[in-house]
Amino acid sequence: MSRWKASLIHLTISAIIATAVLALMLLVWYPYPLFAAVGGQQVLMILLGVDVTLGPLVTLIIFNTKKSRKALTFDLAFIAITQVAALIYGMGVVFQARPVYVVFSKDSFDLVTANMLSDEDIAKVKHPDFRSPPLTGPVYAYTEMPADIKEKNEVILSTFSGKDLPQFPQFYQPYAERMAVAGNVAKPIAELKKFNPDHTAHIDEAVRNSGRPEADIGYLPLRAKHQHQALLLGKSDGQILKILRLQPWPMDDKPINVKK
Q1: What is the phi/psi pair of residue 125, to 5°?
Q2: CA 160 to CA 162: how far, in whole Å?
Q3: Banded model confidence at residue 163, pLDDT cuts 50, 70, 90
Q4: CB-CB contact of 250 with 214 (8 Å)
Q5: Is the pLDDT of residue 77 over 90?
Q6: Which end of the chain has the smaller Cβ count within 10 Å, N or C?
Q7: CB neighbour list of residue 217: distance below 8 Å, 6 or more residues apart
Q8: Cα gap 230→214, rounded to integer Å
Q9: What would the DSSP string read from start to end of 57-91?
Q10: 194 vs 200: CA distance, rounded Å
Q11: Cα–Cα distance measured from residue 161 to residue 101, given in angstroms and rounded to the nearest whole number
């Protein structure tokens, strides 16, 4: 077997594995367009770069039929073990960075990833729907500032370290039970078009596909780590309709991270 053939076989196997990883990410853990919201491109490029490019390239470089079978087997086994270890590490990072909750509070939604939630806070969760972060894609939730003074002060003080109300899962409630609250504060679609003048056709298409009149559709900002987006919902009932990769604020506005 030539080194080119060996590298091609390695590349084929790596591509199959990469395809399975990509399907898991995009279809389960990072459904469109949340993949862009959490900056999944960077993690994916590193992961696929190691799995699809580096491994087969190293095989091409070191594969030499003049080596003894034992030496060649050792080299290839070392490459395979290193590649698998890198893949496992990368998948661990991807798993911890996956979106787990889309949380409504006050007048916007926040995209919460698994690594934003502390084990201590998760242990305090009483509602059965939120006792452990979901494994099969993000779940919608509702939250509001707790009435208890001690808990309220804990949330307020935590904002100084960058931890906001949506990152306290112990206060989550099922979104389905409070949908109307979100619908009542939804912003008009005309405002979203104003902030995204080059994407009015895209917005109109989303409205048509919803099957609702535009007067009954609003939007709220979806705040995320890498890319803020716009979430369309029914104004009359708060039903989630679609998430769009559009600017939810004027370009010069800065989202405030404290929700009281």
Answers
A1: -65, 130
A2: 5
A3: very high
A4: no
A5: no
A6: N
A7: 186, 189, 207, 210, 232, 233, 234, 235, 241
A8: 15
A9: HHHHHH--TTS-HHHHHHHHHHHHHHHHHHHHHHH
A10: 8
A11: 21
As a whole-number percent, the residues of the chain with pLDDT over 90 amount to: 57
pLDDT at residue 250 greater than cutoff 60 = yes
The answer to whether residues 127 and 172 touch, using CB atoms and an 8 Å cutoff, is yes
Alpha-carbon gap, residue 90 to 242, rounded angstroms:
30
**pLDDT for 186-221, tens place per residue?**
999 999 999 999 999 999 999 999 999 999 999 999
Token pair for residue 4? Answer: 């080119």
DSSP state letters, 119-161: HHHHHT--SGGGSS--SSS-EEEE----SSHHHHHHHHHHGGG
Question: What tokens were used for 108?
Answer: 């916007």
256 band by pLDDT with thresholds 50, 70 and 90: very low
